[in-house]
């Protein structure tokens, strides 16, 4: 098996196993605000005096938020490319959802690393391989 085959097989394996969905699988909050965003990929922009920007991948300004966790929530939730994002009203609920999602992504990465090192002992290309797998699965770790 070469690295290209590894990317294909691991992507398929993870898809078939079921990918958890953010925010639905990570937030149980019933009190939600709705934020309208473009149906584009959003990224975490620059931090400026304690405020955090959310922009499109092409650099178009979307929002300024007072919390990095809130900004991450918006970016993670935008992967569905929907124009409305439901976000909990309580900052604690936002923090818990983001931390749970990032822990989930980190666990996926650890499993990928373990499998990669079994097949490719030197592990020198793991970073690029894991990025490629995450891209195929529409996952992003900020």
User: How are helices and strands ordered from N to C?
Assistant: HEEEEHEHH
Helix content: 40-55%
Strand tally:
5
Q: State the secondary-structure class.
A: alpha+beta
Distance between the termini: 30 Å
On the 0 to 100 scale, the average pLDDT is 93
- Major beta-sheet overview: 3 strands, antiparallel
Alpha carbon gyration radius: 17 Å
Secondary structure tally, helices: 4
Which residues sit in consecutive blocks of at least 5 with pLDDT less than 50? Answer: none
Q: In what range is the share of β-strand residues?
A: 15-25%
Q: Strands of the largest sheet, in order across it?
A: 2-3-4
Number of domains in the coordinates? 1
Assembly state of the chains shown: single chain
Shape: elongated
Q: Outline of this structure?
A:
The chain has 142 residues and is of the alpha+beta class. The chain is 46% helix and 20% strand.
Structural commentary:
- Helix content is 46%, strand content 20%.
- 23% of the residues are buried.
- The chain has helices at 3-17, 68-77, 91-119, 126-136; strands at residues 32-36, 42-48, 51-56, 61-65, 84-88.
- The radius of gyration is 17 Å and the shape is elongated.
- The protein contains four helices and five strands.
- The protein has one domain (3-136).
- Strand 3 (51-56) and strand 4 form a beta hairpin.
- The strands form two sheets. The protein has a three-stranded antiparallel β-sheet, covered by helices on one side. A two-stranded antiparallel sheet has the order 1-5.
């Amino acid at each position: 098996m070469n690295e290209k085959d590894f990317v294909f097989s691991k992507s398929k394996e993870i898809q078939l196993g079921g990918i958890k969905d953010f925010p639905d699988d990570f937030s149980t909050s019933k009190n939600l605000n709705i934020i309208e965003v473009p149906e584009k990929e959003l990224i975490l922009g620059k931090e400026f005096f304690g405020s955090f920007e959310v922009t499109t991948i092409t650099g178009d300004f979307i929002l300024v938020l007072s919390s990095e966790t809130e900004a991450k929530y918006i970016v993670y939730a935008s992967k569905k490319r929907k124009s409305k994002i439901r976000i909990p009203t309580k900052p604690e609920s936002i923090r818990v959802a983001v931390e749970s999602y990032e822990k989930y992504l980190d666990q996926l990465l650890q499993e990928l690393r373990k499998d990669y090192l079994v097949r490719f002992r030197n592990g020198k290309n793991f970073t690029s391989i894991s990025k490629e797998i995450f891209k195929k699965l529409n996952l992003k770790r900020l």
